[in-house]
Amino acid sequence: MLLFAIWVLFPLYFTVTSSFMTPAEVGRVPFHWVPERPTLANYSAILRGDSTPFSDDAGGGVVASSTNAVERLMPAMGRSVIVGLVVVFINLVVGGAAAYAFSRYPFRGAKIAYLGLLASRVVPAIAIVSPFFVFFRKTELLNTAPALIISYLVFTLPLAIWLLKSYFDSVPKELEEAAMLDGASRLKCLISIVLPLARPGLIAAGLLVFLEAWSEFFYALVLTNELTAPPVVAGLQNLQQFSWTTLAAASIFSLIPPVLIAVLFQRYIVSGLARGSVR
Amino acid sequence: MHEDRDAGAPERGGDEEGLKVSRASLLRGAMAAGVALPAMGLLAACGSSDDEGSTGTSGGSGGSGEAYAGALAMTAWEAYPDQIRANLAAFSKQYGNRVDLTLIPNIGYGPALQTRLQGGQEIDAYYNFAYNSTKFVDAGWAKELNDLPGVEEMLDDMFETSAARHKLPDGRIVSVPYFSAVHLPMYNAAQLRRAGFARPAQSLSEIYDQCEKLKADGVRAPYAAYWTKQFSEEYFILYLVAEGIVPFDEEGNPTFQDDAKTEGVLDWWTSMYQDGLTARSILTDDPGKHVAAMAQGTSTYFTLHHYFLKEIRNARGPASSDVVLDYRIPGENGQSLQIGEVVQLGAAAEGGRADAAWELLKFYGWKDKDGRYGTFVSWAESAALLGPYPGLFQDPQFRRAFPDYYDLGQLERAFEASQVVPARVLPWYSSFQTKVGDRIQAMLLGQASVKDTISSLADDAKNFAAAG
Amino acid sequence: MPPQADTAAAAGRTATASSPRPSKPARTRAQKRSRRAAADRRFGLYLALPALVVVLGLIAWPAIQTLIYSLQRVALNGDTRWVGFRNFELLFKNPDFIHSLWLTAVYAIAFLVVSTGLGLAFALLLNEQFRGRFLARTLLIVPWACPWVIAGIIWKWFADGDVGALNGALYQLGVIDEYKAWLSSDTGALIISVLAAAWRQASFAALLFLAGLQTIPHELPEAAKVDGATAWQRFRLITLPWLKPVIVVVIVINVIFGFMQFDVIYALTQGGPGNATEVLSIFLYQQLFVYTNVGMGSAVAVVLGVVALLIGLLFVKLLYRSGDVTEGVS
């Protein structure tokens, strides 16, 4: 329990406290576990679009911020959510169908196709960003959500299929066979019997896919100008000013949507699965 | 968001062969993926949110000599984006061409730019790191600027040393300046006084001695510098140059290994780290941390580009106002290393569009239509950056941009006397740079001796240069 | 990728004959059955086709191109020249590459062990009834919701030599007597980069295990308890076998993520100090974007892919001694 608390909470707690501190305070030795004078400056800076709340820009005549990263954060998060949700939706429909096929209706060459899917995950993503870029340039999809959606589908579908197949395998076949004897079609079996039972699996796979899509950094950087959350937050990193406290606030900020979604759905995974498996 | 113009622009020949195959096969894949694509089509609309009025582009390039009134595409890393936009707006006002700006965060600029250019994206003008500039010309991603109207005048207008960053020994002109800076030591004068030192250190051994005393007096990490993997090379060259060592000959062959003083420099470097006169974490610390350390008074010396003084002052720490610049790098001849990044002309545009792009480069990297160094003044105002033109230092607005903790006369002299080290823009240099990071850090960590490090680095440079 | 063919063949050899489908053969209706089986196969193909087309259709050409490039010298302007296995030869003669290869193996295995092990432990813990369980489960998710890059950045500062809470805590506990620059030491940087990545991934593993644990019928452990089985015996004889399918999924995903990990290390150390954390993905990045040697970079990509695939399959085989990955697909 203690290990769990330390492992999960410690880095997180550090990020949260830092986000309420000034750069001067976070540098104190020994470390201040509770901010002496908690400040909201980091958060309000993000809302204002100011990347260096603890620095004067009074030197010259022009007040200019060295980065627009904070201004870009909100729209980038919005794009991340949209891209993530679409990727999840397509994954569940397309990947779910494939996983079900692999589990129940193995076709000729299914094994090779299945292994091919898994093997596609060991192609290093960085090595193939160039052909992807050319493909999207020629299809005029650069800088669009579909470019990211298609790329992320390629990388997440194998994971989703892999995970979903294991869930479908755990749903007893007898139910479908009984339904089929009663004259139900294959599709009807899938929709009315298997899907409800596999719902926790679908949600787990959906969550995995969403968080992987949410997490992706390099393709977003190369394929789009408008960017998603990770490159924008990371863009705050290499500033000339000490920026960790603001960065911490931005990180916390960017965690809100995925955590909300994850928390919303984790109950279904955990409790739903228990219900589903009562045979 | 300017791909709409790609269709009308001339196709690039030569290297497209392999790409066409990929296009065909990939396209077929996508066609078959009909299930997924309609959903995406719907999303295309909400994904591309910023087509801020990109209508009215004339599409395609006019014939040579014909004035091009369409938009230009520029790619920049994200440094003072509002100022970039203001500068581009000024350009549009004077020349009529709108400029579509693409900003890429610093963290992935290199790979993102390279992938885009390699993938055939048309960019008329882009920021680049000086060490990549020749390589990009060789790769066909940037144009040589020789014979373009005004380019020789531009070079003549520069400090003589600075021109070597843009014009190679073989006479090719590869880039125009974006900004320049000079490495200088910033130091906490009050701390030095308290420790009994009347002036900042003027030699490497003096730095060591002063820092030892400062450490004993309780300064946590007396010496600060940006000794990360990526920046080790800059310091390597800086320390050599300040000691009067010639790192490379005119052809770009390494010569540092033949100078007996090189060993002394690296010995000093190693002991500074191993004897704890720097923060232990200096190998991974970002400049922002050093700025904070100077502002808080936990470091006394910070050697990096001169403009960081402004960051230290702006950080409003208790020690911020004690920090001043020395205009001489400690070492036998005290010369500094001048750095600067560049703007390059994209290779794709032809005819009138290429002419307009060149006007943009001249505007951005030299003077505006009124003969003012407009963009350089703007960088000075936002970040105390310099430009390589003596005339710029006479501009009253430029001079006003520097707060009074800068002695502009001394800064100009230090800048003028600083070395560019022309080898640093050769096509193989970025490879060498990465190696220096590995080797210097290994040396600092005690995994390689100074002697071995020097000879390996010389071998690296020779090998990379030979490979081209 | 050529590995596909290899693995397919390999898996073919290890495949079990047992097909999960028709459970009782009905000889009398043999014809009808075979017609139905054919229709089943078609149905399966239709279901799987879109996914196959998207993934394999889009990845096939880039993968093949990578393979081709690995046998070529690729000039920056796109000119290519066949050089046979020269790139691989040079790679395996390059001590930096060999170092990187070993480092990758160490990194991936350490990542696998830490993230899977902790994930399992957390899942067992959170499967118990206790006050605040919901809160604990919610917190568990947060690291997983951190993008890799941001996990890297958080740990960079967390382990920082001056402001980091890691130092702060160890210092106050008296474990260390001065702040340590973890990321500036070889082993320190390696350990932190494993922990940072595992921090995110342990939560993923825990959540999947937790879901798996929930499916264990309550009667089983309780009956075992009545029979006098110790907690360890119950874990080994009931929990583990029950979780096996999930464990395989998690392990394979973690193996892949371990070998392919780039974002975290890039954000934390960029392969440093020196080349102490220069795993193959960083090495690959440098070949492609610093040395701009596409041929060599592709060769590195091929090696990385093949190694990850082989290790992944090895685990699958070890775990499924009686079956294989494609259990259920035959």
TrEMBL record, chain A:
One of its GO terms (cellular component) is plasma membrane. GO terms for biological process: transmembrane transport. Pfam families: BPD_transp_1 (PF00528). Keywords: Cell membrane, Membrane, Transmembrane, Transmembrane helix, Transport. Its main location: membrane. Residues 77-265 form the ABC transmembrane type-1 domain. It comes from the Bacteria. The keyword Ribonucleoprotein does not apply. It is found in: Cell membrane. InterPro entries: BP-dep_ABC_trans_perm, MetI-like, MetI-like_sf. The keyword Glycoprotein does not apply. The chain crosses the membrane at residues 81-102, 114-136, 148-168, 189-211, 242-265. It is a multi-pass membrane protein. Belongs to the binding-protein-dependent transport system permease family. This is ABC-type glycerol-3-phosphate transport system permease component.
TrEMBL record, chain B:
Gene3D superfamilies: Periplasmic binding protein-like II. SUPFAM superfamilies: Periplasmic binding protein-like II. Keywords: Sugar transport, Transport. InterPro entries: Bact_solute-bd_prot1. This is Multiple sugar transport system substrate-binding protein. It comes from Conexibacter arvalis.
Automatic annotation (TrEMBL), chain C:
This is ABC-type sugar transport system permease subunit. It is a multi-pass membrane protein. Pfam families: BPD_transp_1 (PF00528). One of its GO terms (biological process) is transmembrane transport. Residues 101-315 form the ABC transmembrane type-1 domain. Belongs to the binding-protein-dependent transport system permease family. Keywords: Cell membrane, Membrane, Sugar transport, Transmembrane, Transmembrane helix, Transport. It is found in: Cell membrane. The chain crosses the membrane at residues 43-64, 101-126, 138-158, 189-211, 246-268, 288-316. Residues 1-17 have a biased composition (Low complexity). Residues 1-33 are annotated as: Disordered. The lineage of its organism: Bacteria, Bacillati, Actinomycetota, Thermoleophilia, Solirubrobacterales. One of its GO terms (cellular component) is plasma membrane. It comes from Conexibacter arvalis. Residues 24-33 have a biased composition (Basic residues). InterPro entries: MetI-like, MetI-like_sf, UgpAE/MalFG_permease. SUPFAM superfamilies: MetI-like (SSF161098).
